[in-house]
Amino acid sequence: MEKIFNNTADAFALKSDTELERAYFLFKMIASQPLVRIGTAVTNFALKAHLPVEGLIRATVFDHFCGGTTEDDCLPVVDKMYTKGVSSVLDYSVEAKEEESEFDKALDITLKVIEFSKTRQAIPFAVFKPTGFGRFDLWQKLGEGKTLTVEEATEWQKVTNRFERVCKAAHDANLPVLVDAEESWMQDAADNLVGDMMAKYNKEKAIVFNTLQMYRWDRLDYLKKLHERAKKEGFHIGMKVVRGAYMEKENKRAEELGYISPICISKEATDINYNECIAYMIDHIDTMAIFAGTHNEDSSYKLMKLMAKAGLEKSDKRVWFGQLYGMSDNISFNLAANGYNVAKYLPFGPVRDVMPYLIRRAEENTSVAGQTSRELNLLKAERERRKLE
């Protein structure tokens, strides 16, 4: 198969020289773990002290990794990317909230995004996080099989009502909705609720998508069990398939509490797990739909080969490739240029409220071997290419 991901002209066609230089500067910073730690501490202090730093953040890291502060604010980015065939998933990326008012706000924004997106081809999915609709501790208590108090049961009913409203709105709008995965010790409760939503709203095709974090060694077994349920109850399975975002936290908790870590023993084992999951889903594509969220070039090539072997069109709407905005443009834009379905996760929200998300992104990039250096090498290659034009 032709290697398409080294084409920097297509990858960075939408970036001006100034934006290219900003990206190079940011990834140089992210490549240094000490700088990320210092930058995180300074940023947190400045925001808590209400120092006037939001303008600087907006002009640098925010604008590189986020679409804007509101869904309307994102439209120029959405429209610009779509000129190259790359779609957007508007992701309200406000994290670590614990109040009912914030959960209701997240619900309202998610419903608004569904309404906003249903007539726009450039926005083919909605998305939300389980903890955007309910307290983490509540999810954890359910995930651990503990009995809820009367007050907690009332609180949980509000969470399920929020899920119901979003999934019904997505079904009515014919707009698939991705439910993000989180830490393993709350994920069982999320899996159960999303599974019930699939059984209800995925009768004709995949509308509700769960997320599989394949750095967990148990996820393929979970998918196969869900598949058995789906065959019995007659519904389609939608899955966003990723490697995962909480590895260090997962391993640390397992060690502290003395249980077997849910994380695969090695990066190689994770890669094998990811690719086996994708292959299983392609084998059952008649009743499944895949959103392959990956920044891994080898896994992207493998999925392309699997599609070709299965006789699927590149544009088959049951298979999407996804990357985060501001990262892996060489994968996103080259896939789109070759006719595949591609969508970028486009985070948005108030600058101050999105900072936990941005800090997590920076920390993840420093811990993923090779990711930042690959970004830097591609940006450097494009800088050199432009000098020769």
Features:
389 residues, alpha/beta, TIM Barrel, eight-stranded parallel β-sheet, 58% helix, 11% strand
Can you characterise this structure?
The chain has 389 residues and is an alpha/beta fold. It has a single domain (67-354), classed as TIM Barrel (Alpha-Beta Barrel). The chain is 58% helix and 11% strand. It is built from 16 helices and eight strands. The chain has helices at residues 8-11, 17-30, 33-48, 54-65, 71-82, 100-117, 136-143, 150-173, 184-201, 219-233, 247-257, 267-283, 297-309, 329-337, 351-367, 371-387, and strands spanning 86-92, 126-128, 177-179, 208-213, 237-242, 288-293, 319-324, 342-348. The protein has an eight-stranded parallel sheet with strand order 1-8-7-6-5-4-3-2. Strand 6 (288-293), helix 13 (297-309) and strand 7 (319-324) form a beta-alpha-beta unit. Helix 4 (54-65) packs across helix 15 (351-367) and helix 7 (136-143) crosses helix 9 (184-201). It is globular and about 65 Å long.
Q: Tell me what portion of residues adopts beta-strand conformation.
A: 5-15%
Overall pLDDT metric: 92
Contiguous low-pLDDT stretches (5 residues minimum) are: none
What is the total number of structural domains? Answer: 1
Report strand order across the widest sheet. Answer: 1-8-7-6-5-4-3-2
Molecular shape: globular
Approximate helicity band: 55-70%
Q: Would you report the number of β strands?
A: 8
Order of helices and strands: HHHHHEHEHHEHEHEHHEHEHEHH
What is the rounded distance between the termini? Answer: 29 Å
CATH class: Alpha Beta
